Amino acid sequence: MKLKTHSRFRLAALACAAGALSAGGAAQAASYQFSGDISASPTFQRLIGSGPNLSSVANAVHFNAFEFSVDQAGSYSFESLVPGDTGTTGGVWDNYLFLYQTAFNPADARVNILKGVSGLGFGPATMNFDLNAGGRYVLVTSGYLNKDMGSFVNTINGAGQVSPVPEPGAAALLLAGLLALAGVVATGRRGA
């Protein structure tokens, strides 16, 4: 059975969209949530608060770096929750949350820092910050001390949609899907 050109185009477009969503996650208006575990992640020497001083007792904390952008300028809130956190008693481990602009360099955590806060064992690490539309940001979740690590759930709320910046592998997958789509369209035009 031979598919019509527009049917092949729709099928390829749907496949490409599904690949893009599975590669980077779907953006959600006003709220974006993701989770992870830093137990086996790389380490860095974290800042004390927003810097400029580095902590001498947290010189090898595990971390997760989440790159993202937003489509609307405005105030955004960030929360990092550790499972088992019951408010004033804290979670299984103490966490720290950092916000960077443009990029995060684990070799020097002082570069591009916007803000840093700790949960201090008394609940989630939370902060607010004004972001620019289209700007690239990195939310870094780490332990308070070198021994602090485990799973976390982070939530970003704000004026617009939060979109993860695709990792190089995901970007390559998206490009391959777009090239395949172009090939299907070109083949359909030649066969018509």
Principal-axis shape: elongated
Average pLDDT confidence is 80
Please estimate the helix content: 10-25%
Number of helices: 2
Low-confidence stretches: 1-28
Gyration radius, rounded = 21 Å
Task: Briefly note the structural class of the backbone.
Answer: alpha+beta
Which band does the percent of strand residues land in? Answer: 25-35%
* Quantity of strands, as a count: 10
Order of helices and strands: HEEEEEEEEEEH
First-last Cα distance: 15 Å
Major β-sheet annotation: 6 strands, antiparallel
Mind explaining what this structure looks like?
The chain is an alpha+beta fold. 23% of the residues lie in helices and 34% in strands. Strands 2, 3, 5, 6, 8 and 10 form a 6-stranded antiparallel β-sheet that branches. α1 runs antiparallel to α2. The two termini are 15 Å apart. The relative contact order is 0.27.
Brief write-up:
With 192 residues, the chain is an alpha+beta fold. It contains 2 helices and 10 strands; from the N terminus they run αββββββββββα.
